[in-house]
Specification:
The protein is α/β, with parallel strands linked by helices. Helix content is about 35%, strand content about 25%. The chain is built from eleven helices and 18 strands. The strands form three sheets. Strands 1, 2, 8, 9, 10, 11, 17 and 18 form an eight-stranded mixed β-sheet that branches. It has a seven-stranded mixed β-sheet with strand order 6-5-13-14-15-12-16, sandwiched between helices.
Length: about 375
């Protein structure tokens, strides 16, 4: 049996970043991933707010495009534009970016095991099992995808719920590289359609949904223009946030998608994941130094303190959206224009922290004018979460 200080399962951007941080602190770290090629296939829209600069984790060479805002489309094709006079988000080359984060971890001394599937995690004895071997460590960190067996074992009473994400990389004509397009479709709610410009001649067209792959593919193909040519197809699962999910048991912790650390309204988890990797690494160091896993419980507490209010507010918004009809959205977009809500969104909107915008809409009373059918109970839920 091979022994390490830490074994990390899942070499995506969050797992690789955590492994790197622990190796830099002098620990003997192993990083496992069932894939042989990091970053492939692409399983992300690759759009992230400029807040990622605060993580000091993104070299500029992995930015394909910079955008200033979004065009929002109602079911009857009314639209509003929100944005700023500066860059608000980056479109990333996620394949090369993920590979960079993995290579950085290896350069820091992480022992990588690619193409080695972890079959079981023994949380009582801190051992992981692959097809041929067992590996023991002082700490196990699970940073895999939404269908995480360790999360299921930690949370037998919680359904491992997720959305389907489907995306095409498309070659096309005359792409507006400054704005993302977001469209509402009743079949997808609370999901939506997106078009993300990667260059003047390419874009990513995708959606996320609770529905089937077959229905999603049909809807996405109908979205394409006559001259659009599909270069690549990508799909994956997006986890649902659940504030009741345990992410620590004994000396095993969950991180990133495995912990459901994603924004409910969009499914994005890169910045939250990097932030949680920092929280986890600081507390993991204390745990290993003092041989006291109370610090792992501190990681769980600090994560909830940092994100619960924001994610619960977004979850309430998502629940409202899920119950709306197309006529409700068409009405709402007319109200958005009448009350110049695009200016409020442009001023207070933030891809990662949406509570400032919600507070402004509640404070001004505009939220009552936008969606009058949501009912008092749902509005109270939003108010409480703020």
């Amino acid at each position: 049996m091979t022994n390490y200080d830490i074994t990390v399962v899942g070499a995506g951007p969050i797992g690789s970043t955590y492994a790197y941080k622990m190796a830099k602190q002098g620990y003997d770290v192993a990083l496992f991933d069932m894939k042989n090629r990091i970053g492939q296939p692409l399983q992300c829209a690759g759009l992230v707010s400029t807040n990622i600069c605060g993580t000091k984790n993104l070299p500029k060479q992995f930015i394909d495009n910079e955008v200033r805002g979004a065009n929002l489309y109602s079911p009857d094709n009314n639209s509003i534009r929100v944005g700023k006079d500066k860059t608000v988000a980056y479109v990333l080359d996620r394949v090369m970016y993920d590979k960079y984060l993995f290579d950085r971890a290896q350069d820091a001394g992480v022992d990588a095991h690619l193409g080695e599937r972890v079959l079981d995690v023994d949380m009582d004895n801190t051992i992981i099992k692959t097809i041929d071997r067992k590996y023991s460590s002082r700490l196990i960190t699970i940073s895999t995808g939404p269908t995480c067996h360790t999360s299921e074992k930690m949370n037998p009473e919680i359904k491992n719920d997720s959305f389907l994400g489907l995306q095409y990389t498309v070659r096309t004509d005359n792409v507006d590289t400054d704005y993302v397009n977001l469209s509402i479709n009743k079949q997808l709610l609370p999901g939506f359609l997106w078009e993300i410009p990667t260059s003047p001649s390419t874009k990513r067209v995708g959606l996320f949904t609770k529905g089937s792959y077959r229905d999603a593919e049909k809807l996405l193909k109908n979205r394409l223009n006559v001259n659009d040519r599909i270069i690549e197809k990508h799909n994956g699962l997006i986890p649902r946030f659940n504030s009741k999910r345990k992410i620590v048991q004994n000396n095993t912790i969950l991180l990133g998608d495995a912990a459901g650390q994603v924004k409910p309204t969009t499914g994005g988890g890169l910045i939250a994941g990097f932030t949680c990797a920092e929280i986890a690494s600081l507390n993991s160091n204390k745990m290993l130094e003092e041989e006291n896993n109370k610090y792992l419980l501190d990681y769980e507490k600090q994560y909830h303190k940092r994100y619960d209010n924001e994610f619960k507010a977004q979850q309430n918004v998502q629940n409202i959206i899920e119950d709306m009809e197309e006529d409700d959205f068409n009405y709402m977009f007319k109200q958005l224009k009448e009350y110049d809500v695009d200016k409020i969104i442009s001023e207070h909107g933030d891809m990662d922290s949406q509570t400032p915008l919600l507070k402004e809409l509640v404070k001004t009373g505009i939220i009552f004018k936008l969606v009058p059918k949501i009912g008092v109970r749902r509005l109270k839920n939003i108010w409480k979460s703020l």
